[in-house]
């Protein structure tokens, strides 16, 4: 998840700092550079306070939009810097004029992490993005890392437009990182050769002097050499431009040098975590929290274990409530891993071994997405159960790579992510379009089906798919992944004893074989069902064509083949350590792990399970036993009677609860209907009673007006006589 709030807060903090004065040509907080022996001031930095003003100052302004931690931006940095230095020091043809003033053309850069709003206004969707503005309006946009010649072409077009016939016909551009243009470099080399000849002549003259003056001459020669070294710093400086040392980036500081957990305040967190590319493992706690106190020794030991490897920090949420609120800390302790503007919450156990294992995986994945070839990927398959493989080619854009860099943090402790452009791997997985993403589990590929560029860059969509396939074929059931494995699925759960290595390996091998065969069968059934639907559609089309019914033909062609399988549950496989979870297994499923390896088929959503085959025998870790029973369990309705993991009364209330959850509107309608019917019945009963009492009172009134009729009159007597 991106820390947008921290970016905005960081932007606000940076905005409060005084921007460079418009009248000041040089920024004293940054060093000047030199190109062709000419001093070049630091490139203009745009901020919310000076953005509009600087846009109005020049007719042309080329702006690089970047992020400090973006790998592609770091790669593009020397290209744009050299482009700026080259043009800043260049002269119009036949005129001794300043480039910036003559062409009214400047260069600038905009930090999209600190000033996200400005980049959003410029419709910057990926980094780096270079935009050429003319009179404040964008005219040319370059997305991604571009060669210096591409950018120079746009610059030359703009210069020719504003000042025709003032540019050279052939522009000789330097390489990114160079400090001299090709023409100036040739002149420097020529000068060096002349100086070398002069030195040789001088040495010969010194050798021809008389012996009695040898000491004096030697002293003079040393003095001349010393004075020559001071008098020609220009030549030495020029030569040093072409050394590789100028292009080597400064090494990052050694992480966690003291092996301690660093207490972080809001300001420190901003400067050291959010706005940097350094990885951090941070706990959020409260001093009064008993769980935090119990975890403290393991956290201190983790910091010692990660000395020189990973930064470890801690935040007191009683003191820095603002920071914890921004990060949405919901309980104590909460543990999160950060890298730049990304974070992922740690959901594992709190033992030292669990912390260390997660931290080592985090260090590995946070270093970026490595490239692999056919041989290295084959070696990786032997070590990793789940590997996500990203295929790319020469046409893959920087936006694609930028979206790819967002996934590793979410995969910490889950799977490995690598990328490749090896043709052998293309052939192995039959890849014909790029970019493409697959997951390999035990050598079995599963493909990410969307192919559109927008869908390949949709982080949420890709991560949802990754979550659905990042478990191994037969993972171990643990407290951290229990919900992920059990909820919404029918799970073939092996209850195994890992202490018996031979039996354990054989059981895992049988379960993996059953899992592979089951998946193959489901794919075949899916393909058969899809083909049946296609055949049915084709029959309708042919029937309509035979009858010449155009309306029926259009309707038949518009039939969509719906392969939605949301109504059917997925069957997955897992195993659990029967010795460690012996009590839970006995109380939930009534199975004693001491009786040997067993298998149950569990339906957690309906609180039911199956532990016997159709013959009444226990299900064992055998491919035949598992598949035979699974086919009958997944039938609709199941052909085998299940057992319940809860009592009958609990099951009744659970069914009512699930009915409300699965069909809320229908359930609410039924309740309202019953309530309305009951209300009508009660109202009718009350009304009838009220009306009966009213008639009696009304009769009393009539008695007074017609006493003979009601009490002993002729009519009454006649009736009685009858």
From TrEMBL:
It is a single-pass membrane protein. Residues 13-160, 239-397 form the Thioredoxin domain. Residues 161-235 are annotated as: Disordered. SUPFAM superfamilies: Thioredoxin-like. InterPro entries: PDI_TMX3, Thioredoxin-like_sf, Thioredoxin_domain. The chain crosses the membrane at residues 665-683. Residues 1-17 form the signal peptide. It comes from the Eukaryota. It is found in: Membrane. One of its GO terms (cellular component) is endoplasmic reticulum. Residues 161-178, 186-216 have a biased composition (Basic and acidic residues). It holds the Pfam family Thioredoxin. Keywords: Membrane, Signal, Transmembrane, Transmembrane helix. This is Thioredoxin-like protein.
């Amino acid at each position: 998840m991106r820390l947008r709030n921290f970016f905005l807060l960081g932007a606000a903090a940076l905005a409060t700092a005084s921007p460079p004065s418009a009248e000041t040509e040089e920024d004293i907080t940054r060093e000047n550079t030199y190109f062709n022996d000419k001093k070049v001031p630091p490139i203009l930095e745009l901020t919310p306070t000076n953005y509009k003003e600087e846009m109005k100052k020049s007719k042309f302004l080329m702006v690089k939009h970047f992020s400090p931690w973006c790998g592609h931006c770091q790669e593009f940095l020397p290209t744009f810097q050299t482009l700026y230095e080259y043009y800043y020091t260049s002269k119009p043809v036949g005129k001794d004029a300043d480039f910036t003033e003559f062409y009214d053309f400047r260069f600038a850069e905009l930090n999209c992490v600190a000033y996200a709003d400005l980049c959003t206004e410029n419709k910057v969707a990926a980094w780096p993005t270079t935009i050429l503005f003319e009179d404040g309006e964008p005219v040319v946009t370059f997305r991604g890392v571009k060669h210096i010649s591409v950018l120079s072409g746009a610059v030359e077009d703009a210069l020719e437009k504003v000042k025709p016939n003032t540019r050279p016909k052939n522009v000789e551009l330097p390489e990114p990182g160079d400090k001299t243009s090709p023409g100036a470099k040739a002149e420097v080399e020529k000068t060096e050769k002349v100086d070398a000849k002069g030195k040789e002549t001088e040495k010969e003259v010194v050798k021809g002097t008389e012996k009695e003056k040898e000491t004096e001459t030697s002293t003079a020669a040393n003095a001349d050499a010393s004075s020559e070294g001071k008098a020609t710093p220009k030549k030495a400086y020029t030569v040093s431009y072409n050394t590789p040392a100028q292009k080597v980036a400064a090494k990052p500081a050694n992480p966690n040098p003291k092996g301690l957990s660093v207490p972080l305040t809001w300001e420190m967190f901003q400067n050291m975590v959010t706005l940097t590319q350094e990885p951090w493992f941070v706990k959020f706690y409260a001093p009064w929290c008993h769980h935090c106190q119990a975890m403290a020794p393991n956290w201190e030991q983790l910091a010692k274990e990660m000395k020189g490897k990973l930064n470890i920090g801690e935040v007191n949420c009683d003191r820095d409530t603002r920071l914890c609120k921004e990060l949405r800390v919901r309980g104590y302790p909460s543990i999160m891993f950060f890298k730049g503007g990304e974070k992922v919450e740690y959901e594992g156990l709190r033992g030292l071994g669990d912390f260390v294992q997660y931290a080592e995986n985090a260090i590995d994945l946070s270093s970026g997405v490595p490239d692999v070839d056919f041989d290295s990927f084959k070696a990786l398959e032997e070590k990793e159960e789940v590997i996500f493989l990203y295929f790319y080619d020469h046409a893959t854009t920087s936006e694609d790579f930028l979206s790819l860099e967002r996934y590793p943090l979410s995969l910490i402790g889950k799977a490995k992510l690598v990328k490749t452009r090896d043709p052998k791997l293309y052939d192995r997985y039959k890849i014909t379009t790029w970019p493409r993403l697959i997951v390999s589990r035990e050598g079995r590929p599963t493909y990410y089906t969307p192919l559109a560029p927008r869908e390949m860059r949709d982080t949420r969509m890709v991560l949802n798919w990754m979550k659905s396939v990042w478990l191994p074929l037969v993972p171990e059931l643990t407290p951290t992944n229990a919900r992920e494995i059990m909820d919404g699925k029918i799970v073939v759960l092996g209850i195994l004893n890992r202490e018996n290595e031979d039996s354990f390996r054989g059981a895992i091998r049988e379960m993996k074989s059953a899992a592979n065969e089951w998946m193959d069968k489901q794919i075949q059934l899916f393909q058969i069902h899809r083909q049946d639907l296609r055949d049915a559609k084709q029959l309708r089309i042919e029937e309509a064509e035979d009858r010449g019914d155009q309306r029926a033909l259009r309707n038949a062609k518009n039939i969509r083949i719906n392969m939605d399988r949301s109504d059917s549950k997925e069957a997955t496989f897992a195993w659990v350590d029967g010795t460690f979870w012996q009590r839970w297994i006995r109380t939930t499923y009534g199975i004693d792990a001491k009786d040997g390896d067993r298998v149950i088929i569990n339906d957690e959503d309906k609180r039911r399970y199956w532990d016997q085959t159709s013959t009444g025998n226990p299900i064992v870790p055998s491919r035949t036993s598992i598949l035979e029973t699974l086919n009958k369990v997944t039938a609709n309705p199941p052909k085998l009677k299940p057992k319940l993991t809860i009592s009958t009364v609990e099951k009744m209330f659970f069914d009512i609860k699930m009915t409300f959850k699965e069909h809320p509107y229908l359930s609410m309608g039924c309740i309202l209907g019953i309530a309305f019917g009951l209300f009508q019945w009660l109202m009718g009963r009350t009304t009838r009673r009220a009306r009966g009492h009213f008639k009696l009172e009304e009769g009393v009134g009539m008695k007074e007006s017609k006493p003979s009729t009601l009490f002993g009159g002729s009519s009454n007597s006649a009736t009685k006589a009858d």
